[in-house]
From TrEMBL:
InterPro entries: 2Fe-2S_ferredoxin-like_sf, 2Fe2S_fd_BS, 4Fe4S_Fe-S-bd, Beta-grasp_dom_sf, Helical_ferredxn, SDH/FRD_Iron-Sulfur, Succ_DH/fum_Rdtase_N
Cofactor: [2Fe-2S] cluster; [3Fe-4S] cluster
Biological source species: Aquimarina brevivitae
Upper taxonomic lineage: Bacteria, Pseudomonadati, Bacteroidota, Flavobacteriia, Flavobacteriales
Gene3D superfamilies from the UniProt entry: 3.10.20.30, Alpha-helical ferredoxin (1.10.1060.10)
SUPFAM superfamilies: 2Fe-2S ferredoxin-like, alpha-helical ferredoxin
Protein name per Swiss-Prot or TrEMBL: Succinate dehydrogenase / fumarate reductase iron-sulfur subunit
GO biological process: aerobic respiration; respiratory electron transport chain
PANTHER family: SUCCINATE DEHYDROGENASE (PTHR11921:SF41), SUCCINATE DEHYDROGENASE IRON-SULFUR PROTEIN (PTHR11921)
One Pfam family this sequence matches: Fer2_3
GO molecular function: 2 iron, 2 sulfur cluster binding; electron transfer activity
Residues of the 4Fe-4S ferredoxin-type domain: 151-181
Family listed: Belongs to the succinate dehydrogenase/fumarate reductase iron-sulfur protein family.
Amino acid sequence: MNLTLKIWRQKDANSEGKMVDYPISGIEGDMSFLEMLDVLNEQLINKGEEPVVFDHDCREGICGSCSLQINGEPHGPDRLVTTCQLHMRMFNDGDTIFIEPFRAKAFPVIKDLMVDRSAFDRIQQAGGYVSVNTSGNTIDANAIPIEKENADDAFAAATCIGCGACVAACKNASAMLFTSAKVSQYALLPQGQVEATDRVLAMVKQMDDEGFGNCTNTGACEIECPKGISLENIARMNREYLSASLKG
Ligand code: SF4
Ligand code: FES
């Protein structure tokens, strides 16, 4: 395939960015999107030009590092896949592909296509954990009976990889889908009950303090989420928040 890439280049957080055109040829359908960018970067390095900076780590849909807005969609045109799992067979010979960083005030650009998503870490640190006795006399987790439906829903919520596509997809740059997945994975389990009240209040406060927008139930986050995190988690978090506010 021969393609034209239009890529956001930005020197650093304080510089203005712009779209730059890069023609590329010899791209195979079996290549991943990131492998296609590797080919481009090799060519740029060979020409003495600066390679395009983009985030990646596992390249198998687990770590949540890869984060590209491709033709206006977080993680591109395929469904339930991350950018690293997106194959070039989703595109046609002669296509022009727009590649931008995830856009949100709370995700400032570091360089080119790499953004700072540490706001997610701070939301997680505000309450996304359970305090457990690590004395060596802990009860085996499997000894606590958990209703199958709750166990399944908690597991589904825990598959959120913190990629930020939900924020990038949202017209309000809301982080409700991410935060609600992190709240839900504990709210559904007995181990999460002890700190449940403080957890939801602290995580929602941190989310607001980071500058994410409000949820207006548009649902774009659920559609673009590579892990299929359900909007039901947002409804659950709202219930948890209301109940915690009444107790507090
Ligand atoms: S909810 Fe989905 S889109 Fe949002 S951070 Fe988690 S995995 Fe990514
Ligand atoms: S590089 Fe880890 S999910 Fe894409």
